[in-house]
Every structure is written in structure tokens, then in C-alpha cells.
Amino acid sequence: MDEPPQPQLTIVEIRSNARGRQRQVVLSDGREFAFNEETCERIARCRVGGPWDDELFEELEATDERVRAHSVALGLLSSRARSQKEMRTRLAMRGIGPAAIDDEIERLIRAGLLDDEKFARAWVEDRKRLAPRGRRMLRYELLGRGIQPESVDLVTQDVDDMSTALELARGRARGSALESYERFYSKVGGFLQRRGFDRGVTSRALKIVWEEVTGGRPEAAADEAYAEFP
């Protein structure tokens, strides 16, 4: 004996719910589904009295995820610029699927809101202003954020390690006890190397600043010890 045909499900109500811009879609069998307001507006078939089927449900879910991805992305960009790699990671951490992430990344690139070269330039400028460091460390940071090597080379090519190291060493010298050159280069030199300056730049900057603040040459013994500085 054939089963009687199941009645066509329909949407009997679409109402606001307590979660702000969410809409509650109520079906004729009593089930309810929550979707973003924008999602419901985008899908013309999502209307009171309209039929409900699996295809509509899947379309609403996929659109809802894209809407959520865009909302999350704009929130992230409101605080600071992001690289493509960072944006992908942060969206994935929010549970957004790969297809919606790909769509959102393309959308942001087209809108000019996601630009790795602009991000890299802003990163370098922020570092100069807030926490100066050597070109080597800047490159390491940018490459670690997924910036392409050619863009990293472009935005760091004008970084002057020597002038930056001198500025930092002078600042540290003002707050240091200048009892001996050995203690000076041990303390300030370690700081410079942690900021990404190589041994050659660090050595020259320390000698210049020591002469500026003391009017004397580094002691020979300390000079020899510096050759062993890692």
C-alpha cells in the first residue's frame, strides 16, 4: 500500500528574535530556524507562504555563513589592517567554512579592504613608531604573516638599520649606568640584537653612542670581549 503524499511544507511566519538582526523562520510543521536578517532579504524564496524544501534550507545556510564571514571580517578590520593569511586564520577560528572564507577573501580584495602590500607598509610604519627594530626582524615578522617575499622586500628596502640602531642605543644610554663599556655593550647590545640588528650594526652603533656620551673610546679589553658577543 502506497504511503500518502506528505503535505508541502511552507513558511508560516518570519519574525525577529531576541538576537538583534536575527530572523526566526517558522515552518508549517512547527519547526523554527534562525537566520541573519540580511540572509533572509537576499533569498527571495524565503517569504511567508512560500514553500520550504531542502534546497532552500541549504541555500539559506550557505548564505548565512557568507553573511557572518563578512560581519566578522569587517569587525577584524575595524581595529587594524590584516594580512590575507591572518584573515583566513581568524575566520576559520570562528568556525566559518573554507568556501565562505574564500568568497569573503575575494570580496575584501575586490573592495580594496584586504591588501597584503598595504598591510606590510602599515606594519613597518607602526613598528617604526611604536617599537623600532631591524630589517631582518621586520622581514621575519611579515613573512610569518603570509606576506609574499617580493612584497616584503619592497616595503623593507628603505629601512635604515644603522640610524634606527643609533636611535635606540641613545635612548638606552640615557637610562643606563655608564660604568664601563663592557657593561654598556652587554646591556644595550643585547637589547639591539633582540630587536633584530646584526652584530656588525650593533657593534658600530654602540661604539658611536659610547663616544657621544662619554667622549672616550671603548676600552681595549671590552673591545676584545665584544668580538665574542653572540
Break the fold down into its secondary structure elements and pairings.
Elements lengths: L10 E6 L5 E6 L4 E5 H6 L11 H26 L4 H10 L4 H13 L5 H15 L4 H10 L4 H8 L4 H14 L6 H14 L4 H16 L5 H7 L4
Antiparallel strand pairs: 1-2, 2-3
Helix pairs in contact: 2-4, 3-4, 5-7, 6-7, 8-9, 8-10, 9-10, 9-11
Polypeptide structure, described:
By secondary structure, the protein is mainly α. It folds into three domains: 11-110, Winged helix-like DNA-binding domain superfamily/Winged helix DNA-binding domain (Arc Repressor Mutant, subunit A, Orthogonal Bundle), CATH 1.10.10; 116-156; 161-226. The protein is 60% helix and 7% strand. The protein has helices at 37-42, 54-79, 84-93, 98-110, 116-130, 135-144, 149-156, 161-174, 181-194, 199-214, 220-226; strands spanning 11-16, 22-27, 32-36. The chain has a three-stranded antiparallel sheet. α3 (84-93) packs antiparallel against α4, α6 (135-144) packs antiparallel against α7 and α8 (161-174) packs across α9.
Give the tally of structural domains. Answer: 3
Q: What series of H and E elements makes up the topology?
A: EEEHHHHHHHHHHH
CATH superfamily of the largest domain: Winged helix-like DNA-binding domain superfamily/Winged helix DNA-binding domain
How many strand segments? 3
CATH fold name of the largest domain, please?
A: Arc Repressor Mutant, subunit A
CATH class annotation of the largest domain: Mainly Alpha
The proportion of strand residues reads 5-15%
Helix/strand-derived category reads mainly alpha
Uncertain spans: 220-230
> Averaged pLDDT, please?
89
Strand order of the largest sheet: 1-2-3
How many angstroms does the end-to-end distance come to?
87 Å
Helix proportion range:
55-70%
Number of helices: 11
Radius of gyration: 30 Å
Gross geometry: rod-shaped
The profile of the biggest β sheet is: 3 strands, antiparallel
